Amino acid sequence: MTRPPEHGTKALVNETIRAATVRVFMALAPPDDAKGELEQELRPAYDAYPGMRWNRVEDWHITLAFLGELPVAAVPLLRQPLADLAVARKPLHLALRGGGHFDDRVLWTGVDGDLEGLHLLATEVRTVVRECGIAFEERPLRPHLTLARSRRNDSSSVLEAAAGLAAFAGRTWPAERLHLVGSNFGRGPEPIRYRDIDAWRFADGTGGAAGT
């Protein structure tokens, strides 16, 4: 999720040329070393449950606000307000911990660390979105990173995989960028794929936007 903003924007426009809307969400993304650590922990589950629909490692993210289906023309309204928000915030220090499941269908790993800061950031992001005149469904923040979904009539795989992650304790890492992510994929049988529309670096004393 570190593709340069201008590349992501052009690709998104090209791939949604026939679409009037795009699915959008705000997120944080673990760095490559943290993702590699979790990927290594998941290798036994990859082998044991090949029938599960595993998310691509490059798509792993922690959702702050799911905005749903937006008009493509509305997306640029978010850019400057979100950039201003990011530059006023310092990186959050987080870690991936343990495992769990939603409705016996969705496998996830949990998030630990500065959870108070994470909830505050999510609140601020959602406030900015509403101030831009964009309506979305408010969902309680349940910090997690989705890893896989089971096939229909197969709940045991998710339960067993979640149990296998119970003892996982990943390293602490700084969440350095705020990501505006779009998806116009996965509307058929293919896996859902995501792409950065834009991303902004949190204040770190050096300034500058992500991807530059």
Question: Brief description of this entry?
Answer:
The chain is an alpha+beta fold.
Characterise this structure.
With about 210 residues, the chain is an alpha+beta fold. It has five helices and nine strands. The chain has helices at about 5-15, 30-50, 75-85, 115-130, 155-165, and strands spanning about 20-30, 55, 60-70, 90-100, 105-115, 145-150, 170-175, 175-185, 195-200. The strands form two sheets. It has a five-stranded antiparallel beta sheet with strand order 2-6-5-4-7. A four-stranded antiparallel beta sheet has the order 3-1-8-9. Helix 3 packs antiparallel against helix 4 (about 115-130). The chain is globular and about 45 Å long. The protein starts with a helix and ends in an 11-residue tail after the last strand.
Structural class: alpha+beta
Helix fraction bin:
25-40%
- How are the strands ordered across the major sheet? 2-6-5-4-7
- The proportion of strand residues reads 25-35%
Query: Which whole number gives the mean pLDDT?
Result: 87
Number of strands: 9
Number of helices: 5
Low-confidence stretches: 2-7, 9-18, 205-212
Oligomer: single chain
Radius of gyration: 17 Å
Distance between the termini: 14 Å
Outline, from the CA principal axes? globular
Could you describe the largest sheet, including whether it forms a barrel? 5 strands, antiparallel
Order of helices and strands: HEHEEHEEHEHEEE
